[in-house]
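Fill in residues.
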């Protein structure tokens, strides 16, 4: 008997549009001869709608669906499909969230699955929460001795005394610095500040995204990403790639809207560095209790060749330009293989 897989895409975060593209890509790798698929999109204002087809994700027409979806928190794994006065009940075997950013990658929707005892693909609610929050990821990286950019934490309410905040930052860090909201995906709300005026503007922008802000030293170097797959001792690195950003840093626009940004799955690295990136990525992956898949991002510092941890993404992008599926493909693990494997791992975990 075929398992029924609920694919969740879209979401309320700033990465909604990218998530829709990723959702379509993932859904294509869930073969209908093996699984029954149910595609549910979450609109930017939080409505759950039944998508009639993968094509509706690609042309955007899923948003016109009149059928609302409600996942029961009870343990019978029921999805209610509501069309006016008609209610259809479907039983779901596995959930596959393809929700980037807040309210999807941060452990929140995983908490719903846990409450319902519904198997789900990817990292658990704890690892989702701590890896989404850059501050807590840094605490974990510090605890296992992984090198990372030095930082100053700031709370949004402290900005009421902006002069004191700026003075404290300037006493510890030199310009330029990166200003980041602690909880935000795809480089949203991040700025590079070269002076006090830009620092103040960056702090205010970051505060619009989160009440915790990180002000980091600038690491000059190459941007390196690792694909990690599996769990525990069976986890492995699917490859190491390099991002060459067509901007001062790899922000949302450089990532998705600038055709000059380059994704290189065959970077030429100094001897021994590919192994070091892979080993460090696995250490972070395991320390953060990751399961299934994650992309771990680093810098290769200019001049010193130091491996410097940047961040980890537990639901990496699956667009045509996304690094994770490219690296897995190069390593001999196409999406047609590893997406079904994630579904089966979810069942094993439950």
């Amino acid at each position: 008997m075929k398992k029924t897989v609920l694919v969740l895409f879209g979401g309320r975060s700033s990465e909604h549009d990218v998530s829709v593209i990723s959702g379509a890509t993932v859904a294509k790798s869930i073969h209908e001869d093996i699984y029954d698929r149910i595609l549910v999109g979450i609109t930017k204002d939080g409505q759950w709608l039944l998508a009639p087809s993968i094509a509706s994700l690609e042309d955007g027409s899923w948003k016109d669906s009149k059928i609302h979806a409600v996942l029961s928190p009870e343990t019978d794994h029921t999805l209610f499909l509501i069309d006016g006065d008609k209610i259809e009940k479907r039983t779901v075997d596995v959930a596959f969230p393809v929700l980037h950013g807040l309210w999807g990658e941060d452990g929140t929707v995983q908490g719903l699955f846990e409450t319902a005892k519904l198997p789900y693909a990817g990292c658990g609610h704890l690892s989702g929460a701590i890896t989404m929050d850059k501050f807590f990821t840094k605490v974990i990286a510090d605890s296992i001795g992984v090198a990372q950019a030095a930082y100053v934490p700031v709370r949004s309410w402290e900005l009421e005394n902006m002069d004191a905040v700026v003075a404290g930052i300037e006493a510890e860090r030199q310009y330029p610095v990166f200003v980041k909201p602690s909880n935000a995906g795809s480089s949203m709300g991040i700025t590079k500040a070269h002076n006090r005026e830009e620092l103040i503007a960056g702090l205010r922008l970051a505060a619009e995204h989160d009440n915790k802000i990180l002000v980091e030293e600038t690491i000059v170097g190459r941007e390196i990403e690792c694909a990690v797959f599996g769990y525990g001792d069976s986890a492995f690195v699917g490859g190491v790639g390099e991002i060459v950003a067509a901007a001062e840093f790899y922000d949302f626009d450089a990532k998705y809207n600038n055709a000059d940004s380059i994704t290189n799955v065959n970077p030429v690295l100094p001897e021994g560095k590919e192994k070091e990136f892979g080993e460090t990525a696995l250490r972070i992956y395991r320390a953060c209790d990751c399961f299934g898949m994650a992309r771990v991002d680093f810098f290769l510092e200019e001049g010193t060749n130091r491996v410097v941890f940047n961040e980890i993404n537990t639901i990496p992008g699956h667009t045509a330009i996304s690094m994770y599926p490219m690296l897995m493909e190069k390593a001999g693990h196409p999406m047609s293989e590893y997406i079904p494997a994630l579904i089966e791992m979810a069942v094993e975990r439950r």
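The chain has a mean pLDDT of 94.
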